[in-house]
Amino acid sequence: MVRLSAFALLALAALTACSSDGTPVATNASSASMSVAFNELSAAGEEWLELYNNGSSDLDLSNYAIADTDKTSGQPRLNKAMRFPAGTKLPKGGFALVLLGKDNSTPGPYSADACLPGIAKGCFYALFSISQSRGEAVHLLAPDDTSVANVIYPANLEFEAGVGLSACRIPDGTGNFTTCTQTPAATNAEP
């Protein structure tokens, strides 16, 4: 198994949660410990990414966004960012699945039948793609477009498209990235 040790878990613990209209939500000790992580990414074949809430309570993702990186500026590319609709909640211990490279699509949410085969819950669509061959940074943006978490899809994974493998964290949300069996919107597993 290939261990990819250059990735740090970035958390939202320092941020104030926002309601669906962008106003601050009352916080307490348990909400301060909420965090989300890029948990699994696949750029081999069907492109998708997964967020995981390893916090102690549900997380309101309303108006948060996911974006790839502008090749010229190195900053998050806002014009193709996928913004979560008002009312989007990520349950404690839950997963949010985002399919990538969905040209001319709205973010969703979409029902399970419009997602990947075998997915029990729905997903979201993003316009951007990530590169398997050169690696690429992906950002989670707060409602004010500041980057609150990011991850670099590794360019040196040792598998090819269509073999059912991905880059994921084991255990979910906290481990280092490694090569895994694809488990979109589910607990990560070693190959």
Characteristic terms for this protein:
191 residues; mainly beta; Immunoglobulin-like; four-stranded antiparallel beta sheet; 29% strand
Overall description:
The chain is mainly β. The chain has one domain (3-181): Immunoglobulin-like, CATH 2.60.40. It contains one helix and 13 strands; from the N terminus they run E-H-E-E-E-E-E-E-E-E-E-E-E-E. It has a seven-stranded mixed beta sheet with strand order 1-13-12-2-3-8-9, with no helix packed on it. Strand 10 and strand 11 (147-153) form a beta hairpin. The longest helix is centred in the first third of the chain and has 4 residues, at 29-32. It starts with a strand and ends in a 10-residue tail after the last strand. The model is unreliable at 1-34 (pLDDT under 50).
